[in-house]
Amino acid sequence: MKSKFLRIILIVVPLGCISFFLYMTFFHSAYDHPGRYVYLDHCSSCHGEKGEGIQQLVPPLADADLAREQFDSLPCWILAGTNRPMIVNGKTYDQPMYPTAMTDIEMTNLLNYLASDMVHAKRQYKSDAVIKMMQRCRP
Amino acid sequence: MKWHLILCAAMLLSLSSCKPPPEPKVKVLGETLVYHQTIDGQVRYDTVTAVIPQFHFIDQYGHQVDTGTISGHVYVVDFFFTHCPSICPKMKAELHKVYEKYSDKGVLILSHSIDPERDTFPALRLYAEKLNIDNNKWLFLTGDHDSIYAMADRYLAYAKEDKESPGGFVHDGNFILVDKKRHIRGYYDGTTDEGTEKMMSDIELLLHEK
Fold first, then answer.
1. What is the bridge-based pairing of β-strands B138-141 and B159-161?
2. How many domains does chain A have?
């Protein structure tokens, strides 16, 4: 009786581990971040669905060194736009960035999404901090 | 049993007589005119499909581009402006895929700017360089205001000045596909991957036309 129970455990546990591993590898990306939808609505038409950018016209966001180093500037660039030339991963981009209106909830979700899934910056934001960041740069 | 055999044979015969499906074709768009005249007491008909008329524009290098430039080429047309904050960048990213795949096969791209004030030919050249275009396969065109907007009408494209909209202009997000004889053959949503894919499959068909 006991050995049968043990045998079942010996089969079920490794099977569970394997299926969990497979799930995390292949299906975890299907579990979308809420900021992904903000990104697709407001950012992807220029920066690309995967953050790849467009040639020398629009800089990439995926693993972009500038976005990682100046992550806290992103809310102002998004809200007010910017004309300053940017050097991203060694290339210069000087097409103006256009302002995009956004609520604080959208901005919080977007920043967290960018930090975790695209820019890969070690950041995490709560909406009260984001509201302060947004107020500082509203024209 | 015998009847079954005969029935089977009949079915096989009817299957073998099936014709192969007709070759896929791309429709010619635009108004088709039928002229008729009486010659020696007989009425003769002549069908004329719509053709893109003669045009003259300036490309990003300051060179003149006219119907001679595109003669014998399948080409793609879109309308845009370089200060466009909304759909233009996405359309340019999609067109770049078409450029990469078909520029070596003789397909041309004509991007008409609808903002002649700001998009002078040096400005267009700068924009083209940002897209890494430095040849005659993808032309960014400008010209005088009225001829640009008249051309948009001839392509049945929507392009207007509008102070209210972002950037000051509105235009549709379509790619227009034109064949070697200057007939419009298709409109595709240039803001989606699916629209671009559909256009590229139609380009394949047009390239095989004489």
1. unpaired
2. 2
B175 found inside a domain: yes
Q: Do B127 and A57 touch (CB under 8 A)?
A: yes
pLDDT at A76: 95
Q: Which residues in chain B touch residue A44, judged by CB atoms under 8 angstroms apart?
A: 90
- Residue B12 predicted with pLDDT over 70: no
**CB count in 10 Å sphere of residue B73:** 16
Q: How many domains does chain B have?
A: 1
With contact defined as beta carbons under 8 Å apart, do B82 and B144 qualify? no
- The single residue listed with the structure tokens 């060694």 is A90
Handedness of CA A57, A58, A63, A64 (dihedral sign): positive
Whether A56 and B131 lie within 8 Å, measured CB to CB: yes
> Nearest CA of chain B to the CA of A119: how many Å?
20
pLDDT at B11: 63
E strands within chain A?
86-88, 91-93
What value of ipTM does the predicted structure carry?
0.76
Domain holding A39, by residue range, is: 34-137
Closest CA to B184 of B69, B47, B51: B51
Residue B13: band (very low, low, confident or very high) from pLDDT cuts 50, 70, 90: low
